[in-house]
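Handout, page 2. Input:
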Amino acid sequence: MEPTPAEQHLPKEARMKIGFIGLGVMGKPMAKHLVEAGHDVVVYNRSRPSMDELAATGAVAADNLAQVGQTDIVITMLPDSPDVEAVLFHEEGVASTLQPGAVVIDCSTISPQAAGVIGEQLAAAQVDFVDAPVSGGEAGAVNGALAIMMGGDEETVARAQDVLGVFAAAMAHVGPIGSGQLVKAANQMLVAGNIALVAEALSLLQRTDVDVPAAVDVLNGGLASSQVLKAKGPKMLARDFTPGFRLDLHYKDLLIALAACEQAGVAVPIAGMTTQLVQAMRAAGDGGQDHGALIKAVERLSGIPPHKT
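Output:
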């Protein structure tokens, strides 16, 4: 096989053997960045098409999870705690073939408690662990511009950074195992609350004689500007709710955040109300849409007739 352009300029000693599990909306472009960086990447996914697509770019499509464990570093990007636990600790899962000194990096969003348990189980097999949830959605994954918050010991996090840097715009070591998930919980609270307020503001503007595009432009020039307004505002106005990050997943993340807040004894009324709005969307059958679809919840509460999309 001819070397890729990335392989041609990446020193052989810098190439790593990396396993990647979970080739969804964000996982697939993340794995692709690793391939393009010149690493030897073994991929696994429940459905075959994403594996075949990456194999065409130079990855190895694994036949089973145990094959993924025959690497130096394994990255998981999965929906929830049970999914991560299953791929790692199933009888023929990744942990069955991991060697002492290997590193598992979990980029999923799971509970801090689950991250701690996973870390303990892997440590018993002399395997290191970093919980490294990511933020930035599909666009951040595609553009290699994710924010990554990492929990673990300093040495292991440093090893993780060498790998994760190929698809990160910002990385931070935020504490011991589980800390990454706590910071991600705070992240999801901020994002959901911001989306809800953007939805309310845009609903107001659309019900008046305001020039909405001009209004959004000037809002983005002042203190009201935010990444959410810039990224989600235009999609809300265009009624484009193609999932970059599904409401169902954001609801799961908010439940994790609320549980963490309860344990810490912190009152979070705004996050609680936003979670209820997200749940209302799910109850209406919209859980598979992008979280920007939260504007529809505001419209329903306001008696605004449904838009034709």
